[in-house]
């Protein structure tokens, strides 16, 4: 930790707002299975990396910093976790999936800094019990936000049932990518349930019919009920692994900066951002190549998604750069819980204020409980150092 608290907390705020709004450009656009979206988004991320490498590198100038393969590997780790998210949501739902990988991410980052794991120097916290209480409140709030998200998704699913005819007539109509209050990398849980439960429509004459077995119990099943315990366990394990990937993405760049790989590496964390983002871009590009080869004509690559996805990547990249700096100024055990908590607060405020989300009493109640835990938790974490 460098001890520049003002800069560290400012970066936490920038990162929290950035991660809370970075999916706004693609709101209303169906991102499909997320592969093409992630690849295009990585272009915006790489653009931020180029600017950071030239403007914020040490010393500042137009020369790019040294490319660090280990830092790039850290970025590839993050993208691997990101690519898993759509499939996690299909297996266990958005509410539970988001909660599990956020929980795993937050705890992994906190443990890394608190105990000095994976080559990262162990951090000293002046008030460790205050930090631990704040972390506990932030973690507990995740479950209440998850409950609010599930009620919000159910209400959205009920509304979609009333507009099935319209959506069948216009199969390419715009749909919400995700709730702003509870962002994810693909459509909402209700969207995915519809994709799984509804058989492919067939055109008969001028009408569209869907093959259904009358009285079939599958018509009333949710994805979790329709899938066996093995699939649910796989989804849960994938969510835990994705969170671990998210929580360890900074470890290699930080270890390089701290001299764990030798003294011939830069001591400025900004010198590793470009390499880190190159790793994200490379992993996303490789996934897109494999996806295109396997899916061929069935691949989902709409042109109208390109510019919004790039904008989303730029917002995400700016937030990630701020997180890099916050880790150095505040330490992992402070920055991770704060930045992991703020996007949910920002998304909740934006969603309610501008998009009329979180309308039901139950979802608002649970979101309020989560907010009542998360806000003081963030304050406790902030004053613990």
Total of helices: 14
Alpha-carbon distance between the two ends: 10 Å
Largest sheet: 2 strands, antiparallel
Q: What ranges have pLDDT less than 50 throughout 5 or more consecutive residues?
A: 163-182, 184-221
User: Spatial order of the strands in the main sheet?
Assistant: 1-2
CA gyration radius, whole angstroms: 21 Å
For the record, the count of structural domains works out to 1
Count of DSSP strands: 2
What structural category arises from helix and sheet content? mainly alpha
- The overall average pLDDT, rounded, is 78
Share of residues in helices: 55-70%
Strand content: under 5%
What sort of overall outline do the alpha carbons produce when their principal axes are compared?
globular
Secondary-structure element order, as H and E? HHHHHHHEEHHHHHHH
Task: Produce a short descriptive summary.
With 385 residues, the protein is mainly α. The chain is built from 14 helices and two strands. The chain has one domain.
Please give a structural write-up:
The chain has 385 residues and is mainly alpha-helical. The protein has one domain. It has helices at 5-21, 35-55, 69-92, 94-115, 128-161, 164-169, 189-197, 223-226, 229-248, 251-257, 273-295, 306-330, 332-354, 361-383, and strands at 201-204, 207-210. Strands 1-2 form a two-stranded antiparallel ribbon.
